[in-house]
Amino acid sequence: MENIWIKIGYALLTIFIVLNYGLLLQGLFRKIGARVGRRHGIRIWQPWVDIIKNYTFRSRIYHGVMYYLGPVFRLTGGIGLLLFLPVIYGSEMFSNFSFTGDLMLVLYFQFFGVLGMALGAGESGHPYSAIGVSRGLSQVTAFELPLTLGVLAIGLQYHTLNINEIVAAQQGSILNWTFFTNPFAAAAMLLSFLGAMGRSPFDVVLAPQEIPIGPPTEFNSSLLGVLQLNRAIFPVAKLILFMNLLFGGATNWGELIIKTFFIYFWSVFVGIAFPRFRVDQSVRWFLSIPLILGVIAIILIKF
Questions:
Q1: Global confidence as pTM
Q2: Model pLDDT for residues 12-57, shown as the tens digit of each residue
Q3: Are the C-beta atoms of 69 and 116 separated by less than 8 Å?
Q4: How many angstroms from the chain centroid is the CA of residue 248?
């Protein structure tokens, strides 16, 4: 029982660190995007200010129980994904509960938050929320297919779905990373990663220039604050997942920050360089190049 409480304490510490790191990345990359467009941009600490401000407000709007549970489910998906990942390889303190889960559980958590958000936003009755939900579920279904093929290729390559064992197999040299030993699976997953991060050209869900922020349209005050917490934790959890699967994990926080920064920068670079797709263009794109790469990865591993 004492060990469980210690694990919970370490997990809370991990969430605190990841939350603040995610908020820092939000402010930093919004600043970078603004400077590319020759604008000054927000202050780097603005994400912290926004969360504090939203938690000082209360909402009297009521759309049903699921309306309130939607943001909770969304945040649960992000925290659940993080807690079943080994954040720092070989560290008892920051291994979280990775010993009890595997890649399949992690993929379920990744979809759990999306589904919860869809149910919550759908109950609001706002047409923009419904439009965002339909677009989001279409795009998630499209990019999950090549992502799953890439994950299965990695599982076949290492003969395990345990994330700790996959990270262990990549130790010793950069050339042992999955990125080099299984380039087709890595390519399929990194292209799917663009959709998972929801940045341009795949920001068809929020579509801020078209349908005023999609599913979160009707959420405000502390409910919007919960969604903002998730937007800090969930992306970093996905960055750690891809780092563990493709880039050998991290043995310390410095290594984690460097690797996750450049993985995140990949999606930011693409988002700045390319305009937004329509939803049908996004779905067709994920079902073409990334899907083909995922199929090739499976074939090469199998034969």
A1: 0.89
A2: 899 999 999 999 998 888 888 788 778 887 888 888 988 888 888 7
A3: yes
A4: 18
